[in-house]
Amino acid sequence: MSPRDRSGRTDLATRGTGGDGVPSEDIARAREAAGDGPAPAGPDDLPDLQSDLLPDPPPVPRVDGDAIDAADADFETGLDRWSDPAAETATRRGWRGIRRADGLVSSLRLLAELALDPLLTPGLRRALRAGEPIVVAVAVPGPAWVAPVDGVIAAASGGQARRLTQASRPRASAARDPDREAVDLLAEGRPVVAIAPDAAWLAPTLAAAADHALTVPPLDARLVTRAIAIWCGRRPRRAIAPEDLAGLDLLDVAGALRPGSSPGACAARLRRASRARLGPAQGGAAPPLAELAGYGPAHGWATALVSDIARVRRGEMRASLLEGAVLFGIPGTGKTTFARALAAEAGVPFVTTSVAEWFTGSSGHLDGVVKSAASFFDALGVAAKANGTAVGFLDELDALPNRSRLSDRGADWWLPVITFVLLRVEEVRRAGVVLLAATNDLSRVDAALLRPGRFDRQFEIGPPDADARLAILRVHLGDDLRDADLAPAIRLSEGATGAVLAGYVRAARRRAQGEGRALALGDLLAELTPADPRPIEQRRAVALHEAGHALVAHRLGQDVVEVTLRVGPRHEGVTVIRFRDPTPDRAALERRVLGLLAGRAADVRLGVGAHAGASADLSAATALLAAVHASFGLGGRLSARVEQAGALALMRADPPLADLVEADLRRLEAEAARRVWADRAAIRALAEALLAEPVQTGAEVAAIAAAHPPRVRVPAGRRPYPPGPAPDPADAARHPVPPVPGGTRLPPTA
């Protein structure tokens, strides 16, 4: 056995027989029978690609792609001779595919040979076999390619080439100098071939000295179809399509090519493997993108992105032009489902992570967290190389702190992590990865992540509207309640997110299965409107309180989404109001405070009196008025002393500010009480409607308000007088009307 070379490999030069003792003349006869012409001299046994302790494989015959194409018509006749019983020595009877006598007993080796065949030109092969001092850098699609390509290069060079393989990102080491090692290797005067998934993983000196830079393309449908034809002895009846290989790497494809298999069986394995790879690890199968509802502009963007990904995979568009996006909004709106559906629709791998996983998947120390994050980005890069692109999803993006809000102590730990993530995000985006992220609070995300080139777009995913809720319910119901009218469920589910709707459907199914029957509409409605255990007096008090909020807000022009008596974790009932003005003035802010105080005013004027149930309303109103004076510059002072979130705390330490806020609260409480009393008929009508149906939509609130106009009491001094007969001009001249202070005139008396 010859000594090891510098790459850790051992060259073995055996002549006269194949690797398992098959004579070379038998190899030549088998190759000629296949239509490939005589095989080059030299052994061709399969190496053990998993161990560096075994010697290097000897050369294997070169697969000539043109000869394969030319021999297609002869597959059914010429390859029949391979099943001659006299030659059947290494496979089961009747299989017409490759045997050990052909020298390509490994599907891995076959795929690597086919991929390298057009890159290893005759001149380059001659230079390698002649031992010329050339340097060849080979970039492969992923780590799984390194060992098979190394075997092909060893065979192609006849054992002359020194090979350096790097299957993972190298770590810096003081004990090892890659550049010095590269110089020493070049000084030997022999061919040097460096193989790595990324040229940046090679020694800079070696990369700079490369005479030939070869990029092995990912497996495509044509190459895999040819590989199946060679492996099985005939082509599959249906050609392999690009979508059959979606999400598969070299090992997946090699695992589908098994000895004795028919072309159809190999193709079926590929399709099953693709579905398994593209299927999410958790959460079940992603729904089709067309069935998703309630995503607004994000849906149109995703549909266009799927078309762009298809163009990238056809070679019509650069992958680096694909965009990324951040999805933000309240929890439960289906942001993760959206990302999974996009990847499934595009037929590309979906890789997901979160900052929490970086901690749980590592020691939790700084270097462990960075390494865990690196594994996510490395996996995305490999998947994008193998499939043209990939979709990466970073959940709970706001768990990565915003640098502008870090304390000095926190900055010492977090800044290296944030900087690393920023650099790697930009790197994988340039490599063609579609990067998506989700957060409940976009304001907590570092601004550097939101710039073009990282996360180009931001889409708010809010609660679905009525049409979207209907579509979501239909998706989760499947074939159940296909002919049922879901209008009552849609009305009762106002404000519910996709996750909440899915929970209603699951609970309704459990109810029906528990009684041993099919799902009925009543089961769903029962989950949407569960029995309320509260006494009627308590429910009536809550109904008046919420009706006060809703009616006053509606009269003030605010968008009332819904009002409900449903009990939540922190409330006995709730009124949902949507504010559309992003830059309100003081009058608009005070209108919001009036809506907040209207519930307490209804308690006092129409109910049992003030109680502690309005504490959350008072807290929100106080904080808003404190911000008017201390943050927004809309009070008596122009200076902004604190941010809005800190205004309430400042008020506790600033008695003059507290006095200003208290005066505003008293003034606005009186105004809210006046409005509640004027609208008492509408408020009582809405409260009765809530007791009958615990969910009232904004449209139903508006209808009740229109049916009960407010009764406004005008003070006596401001009442308009009814029109009387026209005065006699002569009489007006005899009795002139004296002026009053302010320049107005009193009307003439009769």
Automatic annotation (TrEMBL):
SUPFAM superfamilies: FtsH protease domain-like, P-loop containing nucleoside triphosphate hydrolases. Residues 35-54 have a biased composition (Low complexity). Pfam families: AAA, Peptidase_M41. It comes from the Bacteria. Residues 321-465 form the AAA+ ATPase domain. Keywords: ATP-binding, Nucleotide-binding. Signal peptide: none annotated. Residues 1-62, 712-750 are annotated as: Disordered. InterPro entries: AAA+_ATPase (IPR003593), ATPase_AAA_core (IPR003959), ATPase_AAA_CS (IPR003960), P-loop_NTPase (IPR027417), Peptidase_M41 (IPR000642), Peptidase_M41-like (IPR037219). PANTHER family: ATP-DEPENDENT ZINC METALLOPROTEASE YME1L1, METALLOPROTEASE M41 FTSH. Belongs to the AAA ATPase family. This is AAA family ATPase. It comes from Methylobacterium brachiatum.
